[in-house]
Amino acid sequence: MKAIVYTKYGPPDVLQLKEVDKPTPKDNEVLIKIHATTVTFGDWQARKADTFIQRIINGLTRPKKTILGFELAGEIESVGREVKLFREGDQVFATIDLGGAYAEYISLPEDGVLAIKPANMTYEEAAAVPFAGLTALRFIREVNIQSGQKVLINGASGNVGTYAVQLAKYFGAEVTGVCSTTKLEMVKSLGADKVVDYTKEDFAKTGQTYDVILDAASKSSFSRCRSSLKQRGIYLATVPTLAIMLQTLWTSMIGSKKVIFGPSPAADSADDLITLRELIEAGKIRSVIDRRYPLEQIAEAHRYVETGHKKGSVVITLEHNNKT
User: Fold this and answer.
1) Could you report the per-residue pLDDT of 242-271, keeping only the tens digit for each?
2) How far apart are CA 203 and CA 130, in angstroms?
3) Strand, coil or helix: what is 151?
4) 145 - beta bridge partners?
C-alpha cells in the first residue's frame, strides 16, 4: 500500500511517498481503507520535532513512529474474529494518539477512539472532526462552561478554534472570536456573538473581561491575558510548554485566576466521538475545510499549514476515495 513515511526530522520534504506492507488486523482490530486524513498542528510539530517534548515523545534523534496522521475517515474493509462493534462496510471516523493515518490502510482496535461517521458528512468533512473536535470538547468540559459565561477564543478560525466556537455557543456561552480580517465573517457564521480583528485591535487592551480565554492559536500567554480575565477566570492553553506547566502549578496554589493546559488526548473516548457525531447530525456543529490536497502533495499541504494562515482544516484525500 502507499504511505507517507519520514525517517528523520526536518522540513516538509522529509515526507516521502513509499510502498509499505498493508496491515493485517488482529483479532480485536478492524482494517480501515482510509479515504481522507488531515494535516494538523500536531503533524507538522511532530515532523519538525523542534521542541524537546516532541523528541521525548517520538525519539531523540529520529522518529520511532514513521507515519504521521492523527485523524481519519474511511470504510472498514475487514474485521478480526473477536470484533463485535463494527462490521465490514461500516463508514467510520477516528483519531489515533500515535499517528499512522497518512496511508491507504490502517488497523485499529475496536475499542479505540473510533465510531461510525456522521451520516450527513462526506469522508473529507468527517476526517476533519476527531482530533480538533475532541480537543475543543476536552477544553470546554474541563472548565464546565455555563450558560451566560463570557468566553474568548484566540485563534477562532483554526481547526481547534472553529469547533471551540461552536461548542462554547452550544453550551450557552457568549462567545468572542479573535481572528484576522479575512476570517471574521466565517467565525461569525459559526455562531460567535462578537469578533475581534487582531490585525486592528488587541483583545487584551480593550478592557473587556472574560470567564474563560482559550488560546487555540498558541500565540498568547497568561501574563498578557491576566487583566482580561474575571476574578476566578481561567486561561486555557492548547500547547503544554514548560512555562505553561509552571504557571499551571503556580496558579493552582496562588491567586483566583487559573491556568490550565487541559487533559491529555488519552482521555478521549469513542463515547466523546459519538457525542460529536450526534451534534453534527443535529446540525449543531460542522467542519470548516480550507484546502484539499491529494496524498502525493502532502509536503505542500504541510508547508501551507505551517504558515499559520489556514482557516479550519486542511484535508488529504486518497486515490481510492471514490464515494462519500
Assistant:
1) 455 555 555 554 567 777 766 666 678 999
2) 29
3) strand
4) none
Q: Of 26 and 253, which is predicted with more confidence?
A: 26
Helix count and strand count (H, E) for the chain: 10, 15
Which ranges in 208-256 belong to alpha helices (H)? 222-225, 242-253
Question: Environment class of residue 313 by beta-carbon count within 10 Å: exposed (0-12), middle (13-18) or buried (19+)?
Answer: buried
Query: Quick one: fold of 132-265?
Result: Rossmann fold (3.40.50)
Inform me whether the pLDDT recorded for 197 exceeds 90: yes
Phi-psi sector, 317: left (phi>0), alpha (psi -120 to 50), beta: beta
C-alpha pair distances (Å), 150 with each of 13, 114, 123, 224: 43, 33, 34, 18
Domain ranges of the chain: 2-129+287-317, 132-265
77-86 per-position pLDDT tens digit? 999 999 999 9
Q: What is the pLDDT of residue 219?
A: 75
Considering the domain 2-129+287-317 in this protein, what is its CATH number? 3.90.180.10
The answer to whether the 2-129+287-317 and 132-265 domains have the same CATH topology is no
- Burial of residue 87 (number of CB atoms within 10 Å: 0-12, 13-18, 19+): exposed
Q: Which of 8, 40, 23, 17 is closest to 265 using CA atoms?
A: 40
The residue-averaged pLDDT of 210-218 equals: 90
Q: How many whole angstroms separate alpha carbon 98 and alpha carbon 219?
A: 25
164 within 8 A of 214, measured Cβ to Cβ: yes
What is the chain's Cα-based Rg? 20
Q: What is the pTM of this model?
A: 0.90
Which residues, 6+ apart, have CB-to-CB distance to 242 below 8 Å?
none
Residue matched to cell numbers 492553553: 237
